[in-house]
Here is the input.
Amino acid sequence: MAAVRVLRVGGCRHRRLLCSSSAGGRHTAERGERQESAGLGFSPPAHSRNDWIGPPDKHSNLRPVIFYVPPEESSLERRLREARQEAQACDQRFWARHNRAFCQEKEEFIYSRLKAKGLEMRDETGQKATLNAEEMADFYKDFLSKNFRKHMQYNRDWYKRNFTITFLMGQVALARALRWLRWKKKNVGN
Here is the structure.
């Protein structure tokens, strides 16, 4: 597996993963080239031979990854890279939708509670009015209960995707080890 380069943005090191998808949810890249980084806000140098992780997406809070595509990528290595890209695209879509729903429902909850108390969204100083921790705990509990099935389905899908990726990683490692042993045997014999 290629090493992962970590981009420094604003003095912070970024490590969480995500992948934005191109048309059709698939990334396309020619061998030896980098996939498109359009819209990600960063682009690794052309000579880099590593995956690059960028700053967090503003909707999902996940970090985009631009995968390195080796010039002699085997079909098995390509399947692994595409599985990783698809897994990250699925994560991106789920968390972007989830976070948008969370923020919208949270605002509606705060508004309804403040309205019930006869308060406005902003106090007399112009500060945004807030609720105490106990009141917000009610919202968090209700939100998690309401989205329980979505989270369970996401977790099942996540495990399926990652078991597939792990299996492919094992196959790639075995293929590379066998390739290395054949090369070593061939060169020792000379």
